[in-house]
C-alpha cells in the first residue's frame, strides 16, 4: 500500500465503522477503476481480482451490457416497487434459468434479509418453527440468520431458539474422524440423531449451503445433499438451499443444489453483479401458504426497485446468453486441475478443491496434523500474492478464489503459476 492509499484508509477509518472484511482490510487498496477480472488502484497498479467481492463479480467488472442497462434505468426512474419493465425482465430472466418448480420469486436487498425471509417462509408454510443448520456455515448476521451461522455468536448472548446445528460434510476436517465413502455419510446419521434427541418434533426446514463459502469453499461429497433432502422429507420439513454464493452458475450449474430439488432457494451476491439485491425462490404453493402469502407480509423496503431489477435482468441475460454456467464448469475444471498440477498438496498446502469457479486452497501449519495455518501466516501469504498482482479472498484458513465466469483461461493460467511460485517455496 502506498503512502497515499494508506492516508486515504486512515481518513476513512477515522469515521467508518469496523464492518470491513478482514481480507479487504489486509489489502488496503484504494480502487480507481475496474474491468473484467482486473482492478486498478490509485497508483495505477493492476490486480487480477480473484476476490470478486466474495463471489459477487459473476459477469465481470464494468460489463458493458450491464452498465448500459443500469444507465438506461437511471435515466428513467429509481424509487418504488411498482410494476416495471425492469422487474418483468428480471422475473423473465430468472424464470429462464431456474427450475420450473421454483415459480415464485420475492426480491430483497441483501443475503441475510433473504435468509430471514426463507426461514419465515418455511415456518409459515409448515406451521412449525425449528431449523437445522451446520457448523462453519454462514447465512448472515441478522437474528435468525445469525442463529443459524456457526462460530459468529460469541459475546452476543442467547441466539434465537429452535435452531439445531450439526457438523457439515467437511471431509478434510471430519469431526467424526471418519473417511468418505467408508463412513456412509456418518455426519448425516449424526444430524438424524441430533434431531431425534433435541428436536421438539417441529422441524420446519433444513438450511444448508450446497458449498460452504466462508469455511473455504468446502465441497460436500456425492450423495450428501440428497441425504439431507431425505432427512427433510422424513420430518415433513422443507429444504432451504442458501445459494447466495453458488447460484446462477458459479459452481458449473445454475444451482449447485438443483439435483435435489430444494423447496426454497436463496439467491444473492452474483445475481446483482455488484448491485445489492437478493431473492428467494419457491413454488407457488409454498410461498402462498400461511401468513407469508398475505399482502405486505413478505415485502422489503427496496425489494423489486427498478435499478436492482435492471441489474438482475442484465446478469440473467448474460449468464444465459453466454452459457456461463457451462463455461464455469469446463474452465473451472481446467483451472482446478492446473492448480493441482503445479501446487503439490504438501508443506503448507493441505488440500486444493474446486467446483466450477469456486476454488479453495486449504493452508496448514502441519501437513500431518492438518493444523490450520495461523492468522499471521495467512496474512503473510495473502500479502505476498497481492504484491505479485493477485488478489484473493480468505476464510477458514483457506485461500478462496472467485474469478468472474467470463475470465479468460490465460488469466487463470498466469494466476495459477503465480500462486504456485509463492506457496511451493513458502517458509514460515
State the main characteristics:
single chain, 428 residues, alpha/beta, Aspartate Aminotransferase, domain 1, Aspartate Aminotransferase, domain 2, 2 domains, 7-stranded mixed beta sheet, 4-stranded mixed beta sheet, 14 helices
What does this structure look like?
- This protein is α/β, with parallel strands linked by helices and 428 residues long.
- It has two domains: 3-62 and 323-423, Aspartate Aminotransferase, domain 1, CATH 3.90.1150.10; 77-321, 3-Layer(aba) Sandwich (Aspartate Aminotransferase, domain 2).
- It is 37% helix and 16% strand.
- The protein contains 14 helices and 15 strands.
- A seven-stranded mixed sheet has the order 4-10-9-8-7-5-6, with helices on both faces. A four-stranded mixed sheet has the order 1-2-3-13.
- The chain is globular, with a radius of gyration of 21 Å.
- It starts with a helix and ends in a 5-residue tail after the last helix.
- The mean pLDDT is 95.
Amino acid at each position: 500500500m502506498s503512502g497515499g492509499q494508506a492516508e486515504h484508509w486512515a481518513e476513512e477509518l477515522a469515521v467508518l465503522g469496523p464492518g470491513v472484511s478482514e481480507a479487504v482490510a489486509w489489502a488496503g487498496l484504494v480502487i480507481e477503476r475496474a474491468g473484467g477480472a482486473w482492478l486498478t488502484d490509485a497508483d495505477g497498479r493492476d490486480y487480477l481480482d480473484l476476490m470478486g467481492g466474495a463471489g459477487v463479480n459473476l459477469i465481470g467488472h464494468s460489463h458493458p451490457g450491464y452498465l448500459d442497462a443500469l444507465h438506461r434505468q437511471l435515466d428513467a426512474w429509481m424509487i418504488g416497487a411498482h410494476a416495471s419493465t425492469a422487474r418483468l425482465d428480471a422475473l423473465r430472466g430468472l424464470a429462464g434459468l431456474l427450475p420450473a418448480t421454483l415459480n415464485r420469486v420475492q426480491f430483497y436487498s441483501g443475503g441475510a434479509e433473504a435468509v430471514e425471509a426463507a426461514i419465515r417462509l418455511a415456518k409459515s408454510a409448515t406451521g412449525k418453527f425449528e431449523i437445522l443448520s451446520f457448523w462453519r456455515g454462514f447465512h448472515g448476521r441478522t437474528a435468525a440468520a445469525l442463529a443459524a451461522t456457526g462460530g459468529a455468536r460469541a459475546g452476543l448472548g442467547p441466539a434465537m431458539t429452535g435452531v439445531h446445528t450439526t457438523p457439515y460434510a467437511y471431509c478434510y476436517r471430519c469431526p467424526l474422524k471418519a473417511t468418505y465413502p467408508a463412513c456412509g455419510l456418518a455426519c448425516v446419521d449424526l444430524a438424524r440423531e441430533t434431531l431425534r434427541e433435541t428436536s421438539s418434533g417441529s422441524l420446519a426446514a433444513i438450511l444448508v449451503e450446497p458449498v460452504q463459502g466462508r469455511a473455504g469453499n468446502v465441497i460436500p461429497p456425492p450423495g450428501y445433499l440428497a441425504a439431507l433432502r431425505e432427512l427433510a422429507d422424513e420430518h415433513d420439513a422443507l429444504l432451504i438451499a442458501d445459494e447466495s454464493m453458488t447460484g446462477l452458475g458459479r459452481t458449473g450449474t445454475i444451482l449447485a443444489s438443483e439435483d435435489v430439488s430444494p423447496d426454497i432457494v436463496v439467491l444473492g451476491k452474483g445475481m446483482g453483479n455488484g448491485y445489492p439485491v437478493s431473492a428467494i425462490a419457491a413454488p407457488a404453493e409454498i410461498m402462498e401458504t400461511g401468513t407469508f402469502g398475505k399482502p405486505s407480509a413478505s415485502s422489503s423496503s427496496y425489494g423489486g426497485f427498478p435499478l436492482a431489477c435492471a441489474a438482475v435482468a442484465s446478469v440473467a441475460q448474460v449468464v444465459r446468453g453466454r452459457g456461463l454456467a457451462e463455461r464455469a464448469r469446463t474452465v473451472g475444471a481446467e483451472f482446478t486441475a492446473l492448480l493441482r498440477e503445479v501446487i503439490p498438496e504438501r508443506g503448507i498446502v493441505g488440500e486444493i478443491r474446486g467446483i466450477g469457479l469456486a476454488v479453495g486452497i486449504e493452508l496448514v501449519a502441519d501437513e500431518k496434523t492438518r493444523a490450520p495455518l495461523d492468522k499471521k501466516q495467512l496474512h503473510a501469504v495473502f500479502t505476498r500474492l497481492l504484491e505479485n498482482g493477485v488478489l484473493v479472498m480468505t476464510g477458514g484458513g483457506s485461500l478462496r478464489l472467485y474469478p468472474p465466469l467470463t475470465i479468460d483461461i490465460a488469466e487463470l493460467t498466469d494466476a495459477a503459476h503465480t500462486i504456485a511460485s509463492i506457496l511451493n517455496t513458502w517458509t514460515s
